[in-house]
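Replying to the earlier thread about multi-chain prediction with a worked example.

Input:
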Amino acid sequence: MSVATKLPSATTPITDHDPRVRQVELAISNLLRGGVALSMLLIVAGTIVTFAQQPSYISQPGELHRLITPGLKFPHTLGDLTSELGQLRGEAIVTLGLLVLIATPVMRVAISILAFIYQRDRIFTLITSVVLFLLLLSLVLGRGE
Amino acid sequence: MTPLEFVLLVLLISVAAGVLGSLLGLGGGVIVIPALTLLFGIDIRYAIGASIVSVIATSSGAAAAYVRDGLTNLRVAMVLELATTSGALTGAYLAGLLSGRWLFIIFGVVLAYSSLMMIRKLNEPEYQESNKSAPWADYLRLHSSYFDKRTGREIYYRVTSTRIGLALMYVAGAISGLLGIGSGSLKVPAMDLAMHMPIKVSTATSNFMIGVTAAASAGVYYMRGEIDPFIAAPVAVGVLIGALGGSYLLPKLRSSTIRLVFVVVLLWISGQMLWEGIRG
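Result:
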């Protein structure tokens, strides 16, 4: 067994534990927590509002099949979503919460790009920008079908 | 069953899946999808859509803690995310073309593989530095260090085989997008076995990438209308609560016998999924 711990030397690579990197790490950590917390709040609130708006969902067994089988229209375009949010519909609030959750890692990537620009790290700015582009592409890919 | 009863029941099952997933280090998706399809008869595409959202929640929650502890290698994560996100897009796109039967069959195989991989985790290997030359990793400055709490020392490590890592990550991303799971059981070995990263760093970095990978495929599923708020809401909330509870229980449950029992249960579930696909 080789000794894994050793002091930094000529053979030991440069590490990235400088204070600026640490700041970015903390910002990312806080963003991830905040995004998850906000989405959970919206999802739970939206679910409660849904049941308050549709009393039959609490008492009618027949309603379930319609809600969980393919073919149901729930807001999955941004236009539908904004108009239904305007009416404060429960399903729309839940959907907004789900979108906040999906957007959280996307925001994380966007913050990382800013950090790499700030550190003048060209190659990583490029790499991270491509990842962000791929994430945004996903929204187009799904719609095209 | 009324919709209210359904939501509460799915919430309960998702909490259980989250606890189990975090105890086993598998993530909740791999357990919640069989539960939704086999117990409730939900369309597998909707189960996958709900699961992928829950994967983002648990991964982001755990990643926040790992990043704070300095275990995550952010540079490696950024580079490999090129491969996992393109893989995820491929997988999510393919899922739209394949029939439900094939999704059951592939799921059964992947679950069986993941359960067997769990046995490997029973003894955590000591980190050994590799002497292989690593021009890509040198150029991208991927080598780093982390503070090991157990020994109280800073462990320096060299990353190797970046290109092989990228190829493996593409596959892991594709499986994640296809089945709506985090596929950490594919990402972790790609880093600690192929790229010679310490297992703790591999696990933390895998967790960090899972959220971005899942977001890529979740975008496709959402636009395709396969993320049903009625199913996704209780699954996302339940799995997250379960995972938080599980991480609290984890240090108290280290028995390998319990893990072995779970492996058997998971193999049985994967058999059920396979059978569901073959039967049609």
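Residues 19-53 of chain A form the longest helix (35 residues).

Feel free to reuse this layout for your own posts.
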